[in-house]
Protein backbone atom coordinates (compact mmCIF):
# COMPACT_ATOMS: atom_id res chain seq x y z
CA UNK A 1 0.00 0.00 0.00
CA UNK A 2 2.95 2.40 0.76
CA UNK A 3 4.40 1.84 -2.73
CA UNK A 4 1.16 2.91 -4.29
CA UNK A 5 1.13 6.04 -2.27
CA UNK A 6 4.74 6.88 -3.25
CA UNK A 7 3.88 6.39 -6.88
CA UNK A 8 0.95 8.70 -6.66
CA UNK A 9 3.04 11.33 -4.81
CA UNK A 10 5.82 11.11 -7.36
CA UNK A 11 3.34 11.52 -10.13
CA UNK A 12 1.88 14.51 -8.44
CA UNK A 13 5.33 16.15 -7.97
CA UNK A 14 6.23 15.53 -11.60
CA UNK A 15 3.05 17.02 -12.86
CA UNK A 16 3.50 19.96 -10.57
CA UNK A 17 7.09 20.49 -11.75
CA UNK A 18 6.03 20.32 -15.36
CA UNK A 19 3.52 23.04 -14.83
CA UNK A 20 5.84 25.14 -12.62
CA UNK A 21 8.21 26.30 -15.37
CA UNK A 22 5.72 27.82 -17.73
CA UNK A 23 3.88 29.30 -14.83
CA UNK A 24 6.86 31.37 -13.62
CA UNK A 25 5.59 34.44 -15.31
CA UNK A 26 2.08 33.96 -14.03
CA UNK A 27 0.65 35.06 -10.79
CA UNK A 28 2.10 32.97 -7.97
CA UNK A 29 -1.16 32.88 -5.99
CA UNK A 30 -3.17 31.43 -8.86
CA UNK A 31 -0.61 28.68 -9.46
CA UNK A 32 -0.57 27.79 -5.80
CA UNK A 33 -4.36 27.39 -5.73
CA UNK A 34 -4.35 24.98 -8.71
CA UNK A 35 -1.63 22.84 -7.19
CA UNK A 36 -3.52 22.61 -3.90
CA UNK A 37 -6.72 21.48 -5.70
CA UNK A 38 -4.84 18.76 -7.59
CA UNK A 39 -3.29 17.45 -4.42
CA UNK A 40 -6.69 17.25 -2.73
CA UNK A 41 -8.11 15.17 -5.62
CA UNK A 42 -5.15 12.79 -5.58
CA UNK A 43 -5.51 12.30 -1.82
CA UNK A 44 -9.17 11.34 -2.26
CA UNK A 45 -8.23 8.83 -4.95
CA UNK A 46 -5.65 7.24 -2.68
CA UNK A 47 -8.24 6.92 0.13
CA UNK A 48 -10.72 5.21 -2.19
CA UNK A 49 -8.05 2.73 -3.37
CA UNK A 50 -7.25 1.83 0.26
CA UNK A 51 -10.94 1.05 0.98
CA UNK A 52 -11.31 -1.21 -2.07
CA UNK A 53 -8.18 -3.16 -1.18
CA UNK A 54 -9.50 -3.73 2.35
CA UNK A 55 -12.82 -5.09 1.03
CA UNK A 56 -10.97 -7.47 -1.29
CA UNK A 57 -8.89 -8.89 1.54
CA UNK A 58 -11.99 -9.44 3.68
CA UNK A 59 -13.71 -11.31 0.86
CA UNK A 60 -10.73 -13.60 0.34
CA UNK A 61 -10.69 -14.50 4.03
CA UNK A 62 -14.33 -15.89 3.97
CA UNK A 63 -15.06 -19.61 2.90
CA UNK A 64 -16.21 -20.23 -0.67
CA UNK A 65 -19.98 -20.82 -1.15
CA UNK A 66 -20.98 -24.42 -1.88
CA UNK A 67 -21.25 -25.45 -5.50
CA UNK A 68 -24.81 -25.56 -6.85
CA UNK A 69 -26.41 -28.98 -6.47
CA UNK A 70 -28.32 -30.50 -9.39
CA UNK A 71 -31.90 -31.24 -8.34
CA UNK A 72 -33.64 -34.13 -10.05
CA UNK A 73 -37.09 -33.45 -11.46
CA UNK A 74 -39.77 -34.66 -9.07
CA UNK A 75 -42.96 -36.01 -10.61
CA UNK A 76 -46.08 -34.28 -9.35
CA UNK A 77 -48.10 -36.27 -6.79
CA UNK A 78 -51.28 -37.49 -8.49
CA UNK A 79 -54.54 -36.21 -7.10
CA UNK A 80 -56.55 -38.78 -5.15
CA UNK A 81 -59.10 -40.69 -7.22
CA UNK A 82 -62.58 -39.22 -6.91
CA UNK A 83 -65.13 -41.14 -4.92
CA UNK A 84 -67.38 -43.49 -6.89
CA UNK A 85 -69.96 -41.36 -8.68
CA UNK A 86 -73.60 -42.36 -8.57
CA UNK A 87 -75.44 -41.77 -11.82
CA UNK A 88 -79.18 -41.39 -12.11
CA UNK A 89 -81.22 -42.33 -15.17
CA UNK A 90 -84.97 -42.26 -15.71
CA UNK A 91 -86.69 -45.45 -16.86
CA UNK A 92 -90.23 -44.88 -15.72
CA UNK A 93 -88.66 -44.40 -12.26
CA UNK A 94 -85.17 -43.29 -11.17
CA UNK A 95 -82.40 -45.86 -11.61
CA UNK A 96 -79.24 -45.34 -9.57
CA UNK A 97 -75.93 -46.78 -10.82
CA UNK A 98 -72.45 -46.59 -9.27
CA UNK A 99 -69.11 -46.84 -11.02
CA UNK A 100 -68.39 -50.05 -9.10
CA UNK A 101 -71.31 -51.84 -10.77
CA UNK A 102 -74.15 -51.56 -8.25
CA UNK A 103 -77.58 -50.41 -9.43
CA UNK A 104 -81.02 -50.01 -7.90
CA UNK A 105 -84.38 -49.19 -9.45
CA UNK A 106 -87.83 -49.20 -7.92
CA UNK A 107 -90.50 -50.86 -10.04
CA UNK A 108 -94.23 -51.38 -10.02
CA UNK A 109 -97.50 -51.31 -11.91
CA UNK A 110 -101.11 -50.41 -11.32
CA UNK A 111 -103.91 -51.88 -13.44
CA UNK A 112 -107.50 -50.83 -12.76
CA UNK A 113 -110.15 -52.86 -14.58
CA UNK A 114 -113.87 -52.52 -15.17
CA UNK A 115 -116.09 -54.88 -17.13
CA UNK A 116 -119.54 -56.16 -17.87
CA UNK A 117 -120.63 -59.75 -18.48
CA UNK A 118 -123.93 -60.61 -20.17
CA UNK A 119 -125.00 -64.21 -19.55
CA UNK A 120 -127.99 -66.16 -20.93
CA UNK A 121 -131.26 -66.51 -19.07
CA UNK A 122 -131.34 -69.03 -16.31
CA UNK A 123 -127.81 -68.30 -15.06
CA UNK A 124 -128.34 -66.45 -11.80
CA UNK A 125 -124.98 -65.38 -10.43
CA UNK A 126 -123.86 -62.19 -8.77
CA UNK A 127 -120.70 -62.33 -10.91
CA UNK A 128 -122.61 -61.37 -14.03
CA UNK A 129 -123.30 -57.75 -14.90
CA UNK A 130 -120.92 -54.89 -14.12
CA UNK A 131 -117.82 -55.24 -11.98
CA UNK A 132 -114.56 -53.43 -11.28
CA UNK A 133 -111.33 -54.31 -9.53
CA UNK A 134 -107.75 -53.38 -8.88
CA UNK A 135 -106.37 -56.11 -11.15
CA UNK A 136 -102.72 -55.73 -10.22
CA UNK A 137 -100.75 -53.49 -7.87
CA UNK A 138 -97.11 -54.52 -7.99
CA UNK A 139 -94.38 -52.93 -5.88
CA UNK A 140 -90.74 -53.92 -5.92
CA UNK A 141 -87.21 -53.20 -6.98
CA UNK A 142 -84.42 -54.70 -9.06
CA UNK A 143 -80.83 -54.00 -9.96
CA UNK A 144 -77.32 -55.31 -10.52
CA UNK A 145 -74.52 -56.44 -8.22
CA UNK A 146 -70.80 -56.35 -9.17
CA UNK A 147 -69.50 -59.62 -10.59
CA UNK A 148 -72.33 -60.22 -13.05
CA UNK A 149 -75.10 -60.71 -10.49
CA UNK A 150 -78.58 -59.20 -10.48
CA UNK A 151 -81.70 -59.30 -8.35
CA UNK A 152 -85.44 -58.64 -8.35
CA UNK A 153 -88.05 -58.58 -5.58
CA UNK A 154 -91.69 -57.79 -6.28
CA UNK A 155 -95.04 -58.27 -4.52
CA UNK A 156 -98.68 -57.85 -5.54
CA UNK A 157 -100.95 -56.09 -3.03
CA UNK A 158 -104.04 -55.82 -5.26
CA UNK A 159 -106.11 -58.38 -3.31
CA UNK A 160 -105.63 -56.58 0.04
CA UNK A 161 -102.98 -59.16 0.86
CA UNK A 162 -99.35 -59.67 -0.05
CA UNK A 163 -98.51 -62.15 -2.79
CA UNK A 164 -94.93 -62.69 -3.94
CA UNK A 165 -94.64 -62.44 -7.72
CA UNK A 166 -90.92 -62.30 -8.57
CA UNK A 167 -88.18 -63.01 -6.05
CA UNK A 168 -84.91 -64.14 -7.61
CA UNK A 169 -81.18 -63.76 -8.09
CA UNK A 170 -79.53 -63.80 -11.52
CA UNK A 171 -75.98 -64.43 -12.68
CA UNK A 172 -74.55 -63.56 -16.09
CA UNK A 173 -72.13 -66.42 -16.62
CA UNK A 174 -71.19 -65.10 -20.06
CA UNK A 175 -72.55 -62.82 -22.74
CA UNK A 176 -74.76 -65.66 -23.98
CA UNK A 177 -75.60 -67.55 -20.77
CA UNK A 178 -77.69 -66.32 -17.86
CA UNK A 179 -78.74 -68.19 -14.71
CA UNK A 180 -81.72 -67.51 -12.43
CA UNK A 181 -82.55 -68.89 -8.97
CA UNK A 182 -85.75 -68.11 -7.08
CA UNK A 183 -89.43 -67.48 -7.75
CA UNK A 184 -89.93 -66.82 -11.49
CA UNK A 185 -91.83 -68.09 -14.51
CA UNK A 186 -91.07 -71.46 -16.10
CA UNK A 187 -90.79 -71.25 -19.88
CA UNK A 188 -94.42 -71.81 -20.83
CA UNK A 189 -94.79 -69.95 -24.12
CA UNK A 190 -94.79 -66.63 -25.95
CA UNK A 191 -97.79 -64.86 -24.43
CA UNK A 192 -97.31 -66.20 -20.91
CA UNK A 193 -93.69 -65.03 -20.86
CA UNK A 194 -94.68 -61.65 -22.31
CA UNK A 195 -95.39 -59.23 -19.47
CA UNK A 196 -99.05 -58.43 -18.86
CA UNK A 197 -97.99 -54.83 -19.44
CA UNK A 198 -97.56 -55.58 -23.15
CA UNK A 199 -100.31 -58.10 -24.02
CA UNK A 200 -102.96 -57.11 -26.57
CA UNK A 201 -105.96 -58.13 -24.44
CA UNK A 202 -106.65 -57.43 -20.78
CA UNK A 203 -106.35 -61.18 -20.15
CA UNK A 204 -104.13 -63.76 -21.83
CA UNK A 205 -105.52 -66.58 -23.98
CA UNK A 206 -107.69 -69.09 -22.10
CA UNK A 207 -105.14 -71.92 -22.22
CA UNK A 208 -102.61 -69.91 -20.19
CA UNK A 209 -104.91 -69.67 -17.20
CA UNK A 210 -106.71 -73.00 -17.63
CA UNK A 211 -103.53 -75.09 -17.65
CA UNK A 212 -102.11 -73.49 -14.52
CA UNK A 213 -99.30 -71.42 -15.99
CA UNK A 214 -97.82 -69.59 -13.00
CA UNK A 215 -94.57 -68.59 -11.33
CA UNK A 216 -92.73 -71.29 -9.39
CA UNK A 217 -89.66 -71.60 -7.22
CA UNK A 218 -86.71 -73.04 -9.10
CA UNK A 219 -83.45 -72.68 -10.98
CA UNK A 220 -83.12 -72.05 -14.71
CA UNK A 221 -80.72 -71.13 -17.49
CA UNK A 222 -81.17 -69.09 -20.66
CA UNK A 223 -78.79 -69.29 -23.60
CA UNK A 224 -79.16 -66.56 -26.22
CA UNK A 225 -76.90 -66.23 -29.24
CA UNK A 226 -77.84 -64.58 -32.52
CA UNK A 227 -81.29 -65.73 -33.60
CA UNK A 228 -81.51 -68.61 -31.10
CA UNK A 229 -82.84 -68.65 -27.53
CA UNK A 230 -82.79 -71.86 -25.45
CA UNK A 231 -84.27 -71.96 -21.94
CA UNK A 232 -84.50 -74.78 -19.40
CA UNK A 233 -85.16 -75.12 -15.70
CA UNK A 234 -86.19 -77.28 -12.76
CA UNK A 235 -88.97 -76.01 -10.50
CA UNK A 236 -91.08 -76.89 -7.50
CA UNK A 237 -94.31 -75.17 -6.39
CA UNK A 238 -95.22 -71.52 -6.19
CA UNK A 239 -93.93 -70.06 -2.91
CA UNK A 240 -97.52 -69.52 -1.73
CA UNK A 241 -98.23 -73.24 -2.14
CA UNK A 242 -95.02 -74.14 -0.34
CA UNK A 243 -96.26 -72.23 2.68
CA UNK A 244 -99.70 -73.87 2.52
CA UNK A 245 -98.65 -77.52 2.31
CA UNK A 246 -95.64 -79.78 2.09
CA UNK A 247 -96.40 -81.28 -1.32
CA UNK A 248 -93.31 -79.94 -3.07
CA UNK A 249 -94.04 -81.06 -6.62
CA UNK A 250 -91.26 -81.10 -9.19
CA UNK A 251 -91.31 -79.93 -12.80
CA UNK A 252 -88.85 -79.79 -15.69
CA UNK A 253 -89.51 -77.12 -18.30
CA UNK A 254 -87.75 -76.24 -21.55
CA UNK A 255 -88.26 -73.89 -24.48
CA UNK A 256 -86.44 -73.12 -27.73
CA UNK A 257 -86.94 -70.11 -30.00
CA UNK A 258 -85.65 -69.27 -33.46
CA UNK A 259 -86.14 -65.57 -34.22
CA UNK A 260 -84.45 -64.38 -37.42
CA UNK A 261 -85.10 -61.21 -39.38
CA UNK A 262 -87.15 -62.03 -42.47
CA UNK A 263 -88.40 -59.86 -45.36
CA UNK A 264 -87.81 -56.69 -43.37
CA UNK A 265 -89.69 -58.03 -40.35
CA UNK A 266 -89.19 -60.11 -37.19
CA UNK A 267 -90.05 -63.81 -37.32
CA UNK A 268 -90.60 -65.87 -34.18
CA UNK A 269 -90.83 -69.69 -34.08
CA UNK A 270 -90.77 -71.65 -30.86
CA UNK A 271 -91.73 -74.73 -28.94
CA UNK A 272 -91.84 -75.81 -25.31
CA UNK A 273 -92.22 -78.99 -23.24
CA UNK A 274 -93.21 -79.40 -19.58
CA UNK A 275 -93.24 -82.36 -17.23
CA UNK A 276 -94.80 -81.90 -13.79
CA UNK A 277 -94.67 -84.63 -11.11
CA UNK A 278 -97.27 -83.83 -8.44
CA UNK A 279 -95.32 -85.95 -5.92
CA UNK A 280 -98.42 -87.08 -4.00
CA UNK A 281 -100.78 -89.97 -4.71
CA UNK A 282 -103.66 -87.89 -3.37
CA UNK A 283 -102.96 -84.89 -5.63
CA UNK A 284 -105.46 -83.41 -8.02
CA UNK A 285 -105.57 -80.86 -10.83
CA UNK A 286 -108.35 -78.57 -12.00
CA UNK A 287 -108.58 -76.74 -15.33
CA UNK A 288 -110.94 -73.78 -15.67
CA UNK A 289 -110.99 -70.16 -16.83
CA UNK A 290 -113.03 -66.95 -16.59
CA UNK A 291 -114.96 -65.66 -19.64
CA UNK A 292 -112.38 -63.45 -21.37
CA UNK A 293 -112.23 -60.76 -18.65
CA UNK A 294 -111.21 -61.07 -15.00
CA UNK A 295 -113.79 -58.97 -13.17
CA UNK A 296 -116.53 -61.69 -13.07
CA UNK A 297 -115.66 -64.49 -10.65
CA UNK A 298 -117.38 -67.22 -12.66
CA UNK A 299 -116.18 -70.09 -14.90
CA UNK A 300 -118.39 -71.51 -17.62
CA UNK A 301 -115.73 -74.05 -18.55
CA UNK A 302 -114.39 -76.24 -15.73
CA UNK A 303 -113.16 -79.82 -15.35
CA UNK A 304 -113.60 -79.93 -11.60
CA UNK A 305 -110.96 -81.66 -9.49
CA UNK A 306 -109.23 -84.56 -11.25
CA UNK A 307 -107.05 -87.02 -9.37
CA UNK A 308 -103.63 -86.99 -11.03
CA UNK A 309 -100.06 -88.13 -10.62
CA UNK A 310 -98.36 -85.95 -13.21
CA UNK A 311 -98.86 -83.60 -16.15
CA UNK A 312 -97.13 -83.53 -19.53
CA UNK A 313 -97.52 -80.40 -21.64
CA UNK A 314 -96.05 -79.28 -24.93
CA UNK A 315 -96.71 -76.23 -27.05
CA UNK A 316 -95.90 -74.50 -30.31
CA UNK A 317 -95.70 -70.76 -30.93
CA UNK A 318 -95.23 -68.44 -33.90
CA UNK A 319 -95.30 -64.71 -34.61
CA UNK A 320 -94.31 -62.21 -37.26
CA UNK A 321 -93.93 -58.43 -36.91
CA UNK A 322 -93.46 -56.05 -39.80
CA UNK A 323 -93.98 -52.33 -39.41
CA UNK A 324 -97.43 -51.65 -37.92
CA UNK A 325 -98.66 -55.24 -38.51
CA UNK A 326 -98.26 -58.36 -36.44
CA UNK A 327 -99.68 -61.89 -36.42
CA UNK A 328 -99.20 -64.47 -33.71
CA UNK A 329 -100.57 -67.79 -32.51
CA UNK A 330 -99.94 -70.61 -30.06
CA UNK A 331 -101.14 -74.12 -29.29
CA UNK A 332 -100.75 -76.22 -26.16
CA UNK A 333 -101.59 -79.82 -25.28
CA UNK A 334 -101.93 -80.87 -21.66
CA UNK A 335 -101.93 -84.59 -20.86
CA UNK A 336 -102.94 -85.74 -17.38
CA UNK A 337 -101.52 -88.98 -15.97
CA UNK A 338 -104.25 -90.30 -13.67
CA UNK A 339 -103.86 -93.11 -11.13
CA UNK A 340 -105.04 -96.70 -11.53
CA UNK A 341 -107.22 -97.67 -14.49
CA UNK A 342 -108.50 -94.11 -15.06
CA UNK A 343 -108.15 -92.83 -18.62
CA UNK A 344 -105.43 -90.22 -19.21
CA UNK A 345 -107.14 -87.26 -20.95
CA UNK A 346 -105.37 -84.76 -23.19
CA UNK A 347 -106.78 -81.24 -23.29
CA UNK A 348 -106.03 -78.64 -25.92
CA UNK A 349 -105.96 -74.87 -26.24
CA UNK A 350 -104.79 -72.33 -28.79
CA UNK A 351 -105.31 -68.89 -30.27
CA UNK A 352 -104.64 -66.92 -33.44
CA UNK A 353 -104.30 -63.14 -33.52
CA UNK A 354 -103.66 -60.26 -35.92
CA UNK A 355 -103.14 -56.59 -35.15
CA UNK A 356 -102.27 -53.25 -36.71
CA UNK A 357 -101.25 -49.83 -35.45
CA UNK A 358 -103.44 -47.02 -36.72
CA UNK A 359 -100.80 -44.39 -35.96
CA UNK A 360 -97.82 -43.76 -38.21
CA UNK A 361 -94.40 -45.08 -37.22
CA UNK A 362 -95.54 -47.42 -34.45
CA UNK A 363 -94.75 -51.12 -34.19
CA UNK A 364 -94.99 -53.90 -31.63
CA UNK A 365 -91.90 -54.35 -29.47
CA UNK A 366 -89.97 -57.63 -29.43
CA UNK A 367 -86.94 -58.67 -27.37
CA UNK A 368 -85.31 -61.91 -26.24
CA UNK A 369 -88.05 -64.26 -27.44
CA UNK A 370 -91.05 -62.28 -26.11
CA UNK A 371 -93.11 -59.25 -27.04
CA UNK A 372 -91.81 -56.04 -25.48
CA UNK A 373 -92.87 -52.48 -24.71
CA UNK A 374 -94.58 -50.31 -27.31
CA UNK A 375 -92.79 -46.96 -27.62
CA UNK A 376 -95.02 -44.42 -29.42
CA UNK A 377 -93.32 -42.68 -32.31
CA UNK A 378 -95.29 -39.51 -31.48
CA UNK A 379 -96.12 -39.52 -27.76
CA UNK A 380 -98.46 -36.94 -26.28
CA UNK A 381 -95.50 -35.60 -24.27
CA UNK A 382 -94.11 -34.30 -27.58
CA UNK A 383 -97.36 -33.02 -29.02
CA UNK A 384 -98.41 -36.26 -30.74
CA UNK A 385 -101.35 -38.53 -30.05
CA UNK A 386 -99.43 -41.61 -28.90
CA UNK A 387 -99.87 -45.09 -30.39
CA UNK A 388 -103.26 -46.57 -31.29
CA UNK A 389 -103.50 -50.31 -31.98
CA UNK A 390 -106.40 -52.53 -33.10
CA UNK A 391 -106.32 -56.33 -32.60
CA UNK A 392 -108.57 -59.31 -33.30
CA UNK A 393 -108.24 -62.83 -31.87
CA UNK A 394 -109.77 -66.27 -32.06
CA UNK A 395 -109.35 -68.17 -28.77
CA UNK A 396 -110.13 -71.90 -28.46
CA UNK A 397 -110.10 -74.22 -25.44
CA UNK A 398 -111.20 -77.87 -25.29
CA UNK A 399 -111.57 -79.53 -21.89
CA UNK A 400 -113.43 -82.63 -23.08
CA UNK A 401 -111.50 -85.90 -23.34
CA UNK A 402 -111.08 -89.29 -21.68
CA UNK A 403 -114.44 -89.20 -19.99
CA UNK A 404 -113.91 -85.70 -18.61
CA UNK A 405 -116.47 -83.14 -19.79
CA UNK A 406 -115.24 -79.70 -18.79
CA UNK A 407 -116.63 -77.85 -21.78
CA UNK A 408 -115.38 -76.21 -24.96
CA UNK A 409 -115.16 -72.55 -25.86
CA UNK A 410 -114.77 -70.55 -29.06
CA UNK A 411 -113.88 -66.94 -28.29
CA UNK A 412 -114.10 -64.11 -30.83
CA UNK A 413 -112.34 -61.09 -29.45
CA UNK A 414 -111.21 -57.57 -30.36
CA UNK A 415 -109.29 -54.83 -28.60
CA UNK A 416 -108.40 -51.18 -29.05
CA UNK A 417 -105.31 -49.94 -27.22
CA UNK A 418 -104.14 -46.37 -26.74
CA UNK A 419 -100.57 -45.84 -25.49
CA UNK A 420 -100.12 -42.07 -24.99
CA UNK A 421 -96.57 -42.47 -23.62
CA UNK A 422 -94.29 -45.46 -23.02
CA UNK A 423 -95.52 -46.20 -19.49
CA UNK A 424 -99.26 -45.51 -19.74
CA UNK A 425 -101.93 -47.62 -21.51
CA UNK A 426 -105.70 -47.68 -21.91
CA UNK A 427 -107.35 -50.87 -23.19
CA UNK A 428 -110.88 -51.51 -24.39
CA UNK A 429 -111.79 -55.06 -25.45
CA UNK A 430 -114.84 -57.08 -26.38
CA UNK A 431 -115.36 -60.83 -26.45
CA UNK A 432 -118.16 -63.03 -27.73
CA UNK A 433 -117.56 -66.45 -26.19
CA UNK A 434 -119.50 -69.48 -27.44
CA UNK A 435 -119.65 -72.52 -25.13
CA UNK A 436 -120.59 -76.14 -25.68
CA UNK A 437 -120.89 -78.68 -22.89
CA UNK A 438 -120.53 -75.79 -20.46
CA UNK A 439 -119.99 -76.52 -16.79
CA UNK A 440 -122.88 -74.23 -15.79
CA UNK A 441 -126.30 -74.96 -17.34
CA UNK A 442 -128.60 -72.19 -18.56
CA UNK A 443 -132.42 -72.22 -18.52
CA UNK A 444 -133.83 -75.64 -19.20
CA UNK A 445 -130.46 -77.31 -18.61
CA UNK A 446 -128.98 -75.89 -21.80
CA UNK A 447 -125.18 -76.18 -21.83
CA UNK A 448 -124.62 -74.72 -25.29
CA UNK A 449 -124.83 -70.94 -25.27
CA UNK A 450 -122.82 -67.72 -25.62
CA UNK A 451 -121.84 -64.83 -23.36
CA UNK A 452 -120.63 -61.32 -24.13
CA UNK A 453 -117.91 -59.57 -22.16
CA UNK A 454 -116.68 -55.98 -22.37
CA UNK A 455 -113.56 -54.98 -20.46
CA UNK A 456 -111.62 -51.77 -19.87
CA UNK A 457 -108.25 -51.13 -18.27
CA UNK A 458 -106.23 -48.08 -17.18
CA UNK A 459 -102.58 -48.91 -16.58
CA UNK A 460 -99.36 -47.25 -15.49
CA UNK A 461 -96.01 -48.84 -14.74
CA UNK A 462 -92.59 -47.69 -13.63
Describe this entry's structure for a reader.
The N and C termini lie far apart (105 Å). The longest helix is centred in the N-terminal third of the chain and has 34 residues, at 28-61. The protein is mainly beta and 462 residues long. It has one domain (88-461): Porin (Beta Barrel), CATH 2.40.160.10. Helix 1 runs antiparallel to helix 2 (28-61). The protein has a 16-stranded antiparallel β-barrel with strand order 3-4-5-6-7-8-9-10-12-17-18-19-22-23-24-25. It is built from 5 helices and 25 strands.
Q: CATH superfamily name?
A: Porin
Indicate the radius of gyration in whole angstroms: 48 Å
Count of DSSP helices? 5
Shape: elongated
Which regions contain 5 or more consecutive residues with pLDDT less than 50? 1-26
- CATH class annotation: Mainly Beta
Domain module count: 1
Provide the β-strand percentage band: over 45%
Strand order within the widest beta sheet: 3-4-5-6-7-8-9-10-12-17-18-19-22-23-24-25
Largest sheet: 16 strands, antiparallel, barrel
Instruction: Quote the CATH topology.
Output: Porin
Q: Mean pLDDT, nearest integer?
A: 89
Helix-residue proportion? 10-25%
Element string (H = helix, E = strand): HHEEEEEEEHHEEHEEEEEEEEEEEEEEEE
Task: Tell how many strands the DSSP assignment holds.
Answer: 25
Amino acid sequence: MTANRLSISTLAVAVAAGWAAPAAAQDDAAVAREIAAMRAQMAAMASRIDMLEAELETAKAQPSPPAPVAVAAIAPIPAPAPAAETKTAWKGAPEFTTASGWSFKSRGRIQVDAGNLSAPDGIVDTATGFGSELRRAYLGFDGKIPGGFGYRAEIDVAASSVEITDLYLTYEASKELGLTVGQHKPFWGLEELTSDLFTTMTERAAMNTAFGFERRLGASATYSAGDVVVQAGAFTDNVADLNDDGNNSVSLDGRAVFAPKLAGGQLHLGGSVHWHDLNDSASSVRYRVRPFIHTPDIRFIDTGNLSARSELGYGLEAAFIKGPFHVTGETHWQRVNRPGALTDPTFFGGYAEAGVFLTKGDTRGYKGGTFDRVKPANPVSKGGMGAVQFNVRYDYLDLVDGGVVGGRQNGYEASLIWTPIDYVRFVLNYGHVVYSDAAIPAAGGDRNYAVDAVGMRAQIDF
